[in-house]
Amino acid sequence: MMLLDYMISALGLVLVAIVLWRGSRQSLLRHYPFFYSYLGYVFALHILALWGAQLRLPGYALVFWWGSAVAALLRFFVVWEVFRQSFSPLQPIRQIAGQAAAFLVTGLAVAVFLGSDKLSSLYRAESFFPDLERKLGLIQASLLLTCLFLARYYAIPLGRNIWGLALGLGIYLSISVMNFSALELIDSFLPFWRYIRPLSFIGMAGLWTWALWSYAPNPQPTASPEVERHGLERWRNAWGEARTAVRRVVGL
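Now predict its structure.
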């Protein structure tokens, strides 16, 4: 690794450490346990990456890629944190939002995994792991966008913690998906890929540092129960019609 690589990795590690430190000082860990579980794993992975690169251990690259793949899966913890904090179990919209999210995940998973014409890349680590990250990032970004759209649609206010958490992850996932896609299409993009992704991670960690510096829960919704019930009934009818149309198309 070059000096610039070490500096970028160290900066990302410091920002993650600050978020974890503030989480323990402000008792945020018990409010957002799924998010901090993911962040704790990322912190350990960063330390392992710096240590392994310094010692040049055999098999380090493969271990790092597998660790990164686990981190990509654990990002669903962050998406779940945004969902469960945005939609309280007492809100009737949570069931509808959960159904819409499950439908979206199923559809996207079938489209991006079973519809891939590069199944042979599953046997090549240099192709498999970037492709996996890109596909998981697309699903996670779509889920985040759905959560934020439903929260906006039903006038559910989001506090600084959840809004910053969702915004930071959403920006990072968007850049990551475009980054991996460009890498697959343009070989000359490789020198830029080495820096765009870690720099976008630093941006996400910096935004999380600001958003989670102290506990700022979601404000109480201001919509009246009548307005909420009317909007929920309208969404339930539209959702029911959409599911019926899909079943007719697939023949179920």
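Confidence is low (pLDDT under 50) at residues 117-123.
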